[in-house]
Input
Amino acid sequence: QVQLVESGGRWVQPGGSLRLSCAASGRSLGNSAVGWFRQAAGKEREFVAAIRWSGGGSFYGDSVRGRFTISKEYAKNTVHLQLKSLTPEDAALYYCAVGYGLIAGRMSLETAYDYWGQGTQVTVSS
Output
């Protein structure tokens, strides 16, 4: 089992920046990928970004590529998501998730992830 706790969500003005964190505990993250998804009110859950815990490789959804950056912090068993140039369309509940043995082609699929956090809310408005 993996327990995931997201943090960092808050209100921010359009154009602002934010850093979300996902702290993992329990099972080792070796051979896993950690992903971020988001769900806005009335919309389906959307893939944001993912990163392999061991080795290289990061992946981004089309709507955030170039604005968001995913990174990992081994010492704290934590994955961060840096959000920049935020717009109201980025407002959502952001979830992190862990999946094991994922190939690149499955990084963006919800069903590929086995463990999910409770989410952290990002609000973007003026």
Q: What stands out?
A: The mean pLDDT is 96. The CA atoms of residues 38 and 46 lie 5 Å apart.
